[in-house]
Design brief:
The complex is a heterodimer.
Chain A: H1 6-16, H2 27-32, H3 37-66, H4 75-97, H5 99-105, H6 108-111, H7 116-127, H8 132-160, H9 172-187
Helix pairs in contact in A: 1-8, 3-4, 3-7, 3-8, 4-5, 4-7, 7-8, 8-9
Chain B: H1 2-25, H2 32-40, H3 53-62, H4 76-86, E1 97-100, H5 120-125, H6 142-146, E2 152-154, E3 160-162, H7 172-176, E4 182-185, H8 187-192, H9 203-207, H10 214-222, H11 226-234, H12 240-246, H13 250-253, H14 257-260, H15 266-280, E5 295-299, H16 303-314, E6 318-322, H17 331-334, H18 343-355, E7 359-361, H19 372-377, E8 382-385, E9 391-392, E10 405-407, H20 408-421, E11 434-438, H21 442-453, E12 458-462, H22 474-482, E13 486-488, E14 491-498, E15 504-517, E16 523-527, E17 533-536, E18 539-542, E19 546-547, H23 552-555, E20 586-588, H24 591-594, H25 599-617, H26 658-661, H27 674-683
Helix pairs in contact in B: 2-3, 2-4, 10-11, 10-15, 10-27, 11-15, 12-15, 15-27, 16-25, 20-21
The chains are: A mainly alpha, B alpha/beta.
Chain lengths: 193, 697
């Protein structure tokens, strides 16, 4: 991915390598917060916010500390610690400085403290050996991809609530099946970039 | 290895220091109660309460924007704990409950055959659904699928049944129902509801002045749930023992079975469950909303006042009843004789009403002991005037003040006071040998039946029209006939004749004939010239009607001056549903607003006034919705014929034999047995707006 341009990175991260539907990361919020459109939008906003910040800080940690000191094997634990602290910090900051945004993001900020989609996107950025700016753009793209998939899915699920679903397939079961079909649809983006 | 340890140590320290500094720098004072409240929520962040997560809900509770019972997943105990943290009286938490308002389902007739997808939303887009009933349940269960708590299922009759134990009142069912059948309401909201043109209600419930859900309580009786039936009646009528005895049951006139068969004996069923509660020896608990701290004065302890006080108390207000008489009940205690409504029964009923937390101040009369200005000075937020109609109309003929002449209400009240207070010999009311009562209403009948029991030799009624036009209840007239009362119809008194000592000796009257119908639709009696006749009597009671006594208005030197009074001496309330007088904080209802009328009408008016007062003191709009039914009938629900009815015997009211009952004031009408009640409840068609259960297919 490192050889791609910025625009291609965005297309790639939103559609071709969608974090939810192609990489299958972050499935718990995908199922948990997609029952209502309102919740899904809130979650999508929070992920965009956190993922961009996490992408930046993990890049700095990796290239300034882990790589020079030959501590790459500490990557996972270091990233988790940094992301968690970052989210807590951001929450404190928003509460004091931008209460309106804090009220809007509400409970979704702490919910994604240890979200695997966030951690996964950061790790992918490192694995693909992206530069700092490209890493930021990719993080943003992954987050938007997450949001697009989540909002699409919430729209579908709101309609499923009213449909006749056989008893054994109700709720999460039909949700997973639907998610699979949407993922198949996204599969057609393969090879575009 | 050392590098790794140092790195992690450094990273951890950096994060820790950064967060500590941030905590200090970005510290926002948060009410410590928020954390305490949050601890009692379900911590599920489900969003069912309408706030983004439990923290936001806790913030709203502490800010006073949400009630202690905000968490839809936590139980009543948690709500009580939260209320304790907030220092408010937990009272009885008012949970929201889902309520299905349609009892049609599969039995409703169809307009067309539907083979589309299994969704009410989809079905509703096709001409509003397949049923002929415009407002009925479509039965495809959108609400069941929307319920996240498994509290709803489509019952055996094709409409949803709510499991009240599982329902959390989240409102999902209400939002998806295309026909607005599922309602999420608190008890208070249910108590405030007035019948409306788009409600799914049977003709009997439309007709009942108190708007009791009759098919529902009969269904509960049928299933042996007598306590449930009592609670259903109490949502609309706190005087079920009294009404079960004295109500002329206008509902039965509109009973759908009555079109093809004899009507269901609705009032006997009410009396049966009311007596069941009384015979069980303890009052069923009545749920009361959390206290609002508002004070309301109810003036008059009759049916209207008791009903108004009862519903205001259930809505959470502090209520004081000011009554001029020594005991509660008003006209049903001092006007209705013992043999129709035993006062022990009434006392049990009024005790139950006071038990829910209503204060009663006896022997204190408006205009004599206090005025409305003093009430407002004492901090009352609103006043209900239910002073009844206690002032007898007079004939306006010569000699009606002679000795041995009485007026109806006055006679009955004095007798009741004597009978209920001490029964002292020296204050025993005068009873003549040849007694005449003038009038054709219930008061007149009460007077003659009382006189018979007091040992009068000859008792007769003089009425200026015929038996057909008598406004008294048919059962009462029949009972009086059985007990030996004579009737002189088409006779208009013109003069009362007395002897030298000033005692009455005769009544002169003109014979009448019926002429053209008047405004009330009854044929107007026209006197026959020169037909004066004199009958020998030694006691005369005039019971030709009564109106409110509004002397307090003249006694008051303050606010009461602005109170508008109609030319019939009733308190003027422009809207008979809102019942607000010309002084905004004064409301009225019952006989004092309408003139003498039914007990059940006064009870209905009491609830309507309670609704208006509640809305007034909580600062909301009083004007009732434009689609308020107010004892009118919904045209589509009134049928000419009712197919599928098999004739069945109506359970008649058991009575004491005439020879036993005329000797004493023992209750003359008896209660039906449990088997009879179960049989009679089975005769109910369980009508809704247009559909009903047929006897035969």
């Amino acid at each position: 991915m490192s050889e791609l341009g910025y625009f291609s990175i965005i297309i790639s991260t939103i559609f071709v390598n969608n974090i939810l539907l192609a990489k299958f990361l972050g499935n718990c919020p995908f199922l948990g917060t997609s029952k209502k459109m309102e919740t899904a939008v809130g979650m999508a906003m929070a992920v965009v916010f956190v993922l961009v910040m996490a992408g930046a800080i993990t890049w700095v940690i990796y290239y300034l500390f882990l790589l020079p000191f030959d501590l790459v094997y500490l990557r996972t634990i270091a990233f988790i610690l940094v992301i968690a602290s970052l989210v807590q910090f951001v929450e404190l900051f928003l509460k004091k400085s931008i209460p309106a945004l804090y009220a809007g993001l509400g409970i979704f900020l702490p919910l994604i403290t240890t979200n695997c989609a966030v951690l996964g996107a950061c790790v992918i950025n490192i694995d693909e050996e992206l530069g700092f700016l490209k890493s930021l753009v990719a993080s943003f793209g992954f987050a938007v991809g997450f949001g697009v998939a989540l909002i699409l899915f919430a729209g579908v699920r709101e309609r499923i609530t009213l449909a006749r679903v056989p008893k054994p397939l109700q709720d999460t079961s039909i949700g997973l099946i639907t998610a699979g079909i949407i993922a198949l649809a996204f599969f057609s983006f393969k090879g575009m970039v | 290895m050392l590098t790794a340890l140092l790195f992690m140590l450094g990273l951890g320290a950096a994060c820790g220091i950064m967060l500590s500094v941030a905590s200090k720098v970005f510290y926002v004072y948060e009410d410590p109660r928020i954390a305490e409240v949050e601890a009692f929520t379900a911590a599920a962040n489900c969003g069912g309460c309408g706030y983004t997560g439990c923290s936001a809900a806790a913030v709203a509770v502490v800010a006073g924007e949400a009630p202690p019972s905000v968490c839809i997943l936590a139980d009543a105990e948690a709500a009580a704990n939260i209320a304790a943290i907030m220092g408010v009286d937990p009272g009885t938490a008012e949970p929201l409950l889902s309520y299905n308002t349609c009892t049609g389902g599969d039995r409703a007739a169809d307009k067309y055959y539907y083979m589309g997808i299994n969704s009410c939303q989809a079905l509703a887009t096709l001409y509003g659904g397949k049923h002929e009933c415009p407002v009925g349940c479509l039965g495809l269960g959108d609400c069941v699928r929307a319920c996240a708590f498994d509290a709803l299922k489509i019952g055996p009759h094709g409409y949803p049944v709510v499991d009240e134990m599982k329902c959390v009142g989240c409102g999902a069912c209400e939002r998806v129902c295309p026909k607005d059948i599922m309602e999420i309401k608190t008890m208070s909201q249910k108590l405030l509801h007035l019948n409306q043109y788009d409600d799914r209600i049977a003709p009997c419930q439309q007709t009942c002045p108190a708007e009791i859900d009759i098919p529902r309580y009969i269904y509960q009786i049928k299933n042996g749930d007598y306590e449930g039936a009592v609670n259903t009646i109490r949502e609309r009528n706190p005087l079920l023992l009294s009404c079960g005895r004295v109500c002329p049951h206008p509902c039965e006139d509109k009973c759908r079975r009555g079109i093809e068969d004899q009507a269901v004996s609705i009032n006997q069923l009410k009396r049966f469950v009311a007596d069941y509660e009384m015979n069980s020896g303890h009052h069923l608990p009545v749920s009361v909303a959390p206290s609002t701290g508002k004070k309301v004065a109810v003036i008059g302890g009759g049916p209207a006042g008791l009903s108004c006080a009862f519903f205001l108390r259930r809505l959470g207000h502090d209520v004081t009843i000011f009554d001029a008489m020594p005991k509660l009940g008003g006209m049903i205690r001092y006007g209705i004789p013992e043999y129709r409504l035993p006062k022990e029964v009434l006392a049990w009923e009024t005790d139950g009403i006071l038990n829910i937390g209503i204060e009663h101040k006896p022997n204190i009369m408006l205009g004599r002991d206090f005025d409305i200005g003093s009430l407002m000075a004492a901090g009352y937020d609103s006043v209900f005037l239910g002073i009844g109609a206690w002032k007898d109309y007079t004939l306006g003929v010569e000699g009606e003040n002679l000795g041995g002449c009485y007026t109806g209400i006055n006679f009955l009240t004095n007798f009741a006071l004597w009978q209920q207070e001490d029964g002292a010999k020296d204050r025993q009311p005068f009873v003549g040998n040849k007694c005449v009562v003038i009038g054709g209403g219930n008061t007149a009948i009460d007077c003659v039946r009382t006189l018979i029991r007091l040992g009068a030799e000859e008792v007769s009624i003089v009425y200026r029209r015929t038996r057909k036009e008598m406004p008294a209840n048919e059962v009462e007239i029949v009972a009086a006939e059985h007990e030996g009362v004579k009737f002189t119809f088409l006779a208009a008194p013109t003069r009362v004749i007395g002897d030298e000592e000033g005692n009455v000796t005769g009544l002169e009257y003109l014979k009448m004939e019926l002429g053209e119908p008047d405004a009330s639709g009854r044929r107007r009696p026209v006197p026959i010239e020169g037909s004066e006749t004199v009958m020998d009597i030694d006691m005369l009671i005039t019971a030709i009607g009564q109106g409110p006594d509004v002397f307090f208005k003249d006694e008051s030197k303050r606010l009461d001056q602005d109170l508008n009074i109609t030319r019939w001496n009733t308190i003027d309330s422009e809207d008979p549903v809102a019942l607000q007088s010309s002084i905004p904080y004064i409301f009225t209802g019952g006989d004092s607003a309408t003139g003498a009328a039914l007990v059940v009408s006064a009870i209905g008016a009491g609830r309507r006034a309670a609704r208006s007062i509640h809305l007034y003191i909580t600062g909301e709009e009083i004007t009732p919705p434009a689609k308020t039914l107010f004892t009118n009938n919904i045209p589509v629900s009134i049928f000419d014929s009712v197919p599928g009815i098999e004739k069945s015997e109506r359970t008649e009211m058991p009575e004491l034999p005439v020879e036993d009952r005329i000797k004493s004031f023992v209750e003359a009408d008896l209660v039906i047995s449990e088997e009879e009640a179960l049989y009679e409840s089975g005769r109910c068609l369980q009508c809704c707006l247009t559909c009903y259960n047929k006897d035969v297919a």
